[in-house]
Amino acid sequence: MSTTTTAPAAPTDAAAPRLPAPIAGGRPTTGIPFTRLVAVELRKMLDTRAGRWLLIAIGVVIAGALTVLFVRGGGDHPFGDYLQATTMPMAILLPIVGILAVTAEWSQRTALVTFTLEARRARVTWAKVLASLVVGVVAVAFSFALGALAHAAAVGLRGATGDWDLAGTVWLGAAGYVLLGLLQGLGFAMLLRNTPAAVVAYFVLPTAWSILGSLVTQVETAARWLDLNRTMEPLFTGSLTGEQWAQLGTSVGVWVVLPLTAGMWWITRAEVK
Question: Cα separation of 56 and 75, whole Å?
Fold first, then answer.
């Protein structure tokens, strides 16, 4: 009795695996353009449900503040009051848009996709910063125009006295208040990468330091140099002395530049899960 083994038949051409046809066209030779990264970050900030509702909330608050000024006292208020009514809500709430632009990727676990498409995290981080500044500049220009329009309407419709006299430092202070707050929020967001923690840190830490500096005598001297709210006050009242400029620069360095620099450094080294 004998046994024989039969070799398996060779695969025919019909059963052989077929590779997909190559995609037509040239292959990319450069990375993602930085302008495209900025455009994507702008869309992340504005084209989301949270971002849209936050912008709507800012608009409602500004409209309410302007309505109160327009009705109270016959609308007879200087232009500076109308400008403050438009810039203050933006300065307080707009940084949350920047915080969400950073933390949403980490809380919703999309950072892995972002850094896979663009592995150079520093470019993505700078794109977030530039996109935030673009939103901030547009918001500042809009608030200036809206304040001027409301004051002109009070003069024309309610017979209020036109008072357009405003020092140049006031314009600088209003713009700086919005833009510096936006950058400060970005810094806390990059450091913590968690939305509730970043929002709490942005609101609580500077406020707690301001309260501490005003109540504790031993801290008052340091607060003159490290309290951003206090060092920005001269911008809204008139010209600054050399010492006041130095105090403003010191507080900006501690509350804006330091968190932003540390956050950018940390976000390029944090583990992406």
Answer: 25
* Alpha-carbon distances of 228 from 1, 40, 136, 181, 250, rounded to whole Å: 99, 31, 18, 10, 9
Tens digit of each residue's pLDDT (9 = 90 or more) over 230-251 = 888 887 776 778 888 898 889 8
Query: Which pTM does this prediction carry?
Result: 0.81
Tokens of 245: 């400029």
What is the distance between the alpha carbons of residues 187 and 109, in angstroms, rounded to a whole number?
Answer: 20
CA distance 40 to 167: 37
Alpha helices in 159-194 (DSSP H): 168-192
User: Do 157 and 69 form a contact (C-beta atoms < 8 A)?
Assistant: no
Which whole-number Å values give the CA distances from 219 to 40, 247, 258, in the listed order?
43, 15, 21
SS3 label, residue 177: helix
d(CA 178, CA 181): 5
> How far is Cα 191 from Cα 254, in angstroms, rounded to an integer?
14
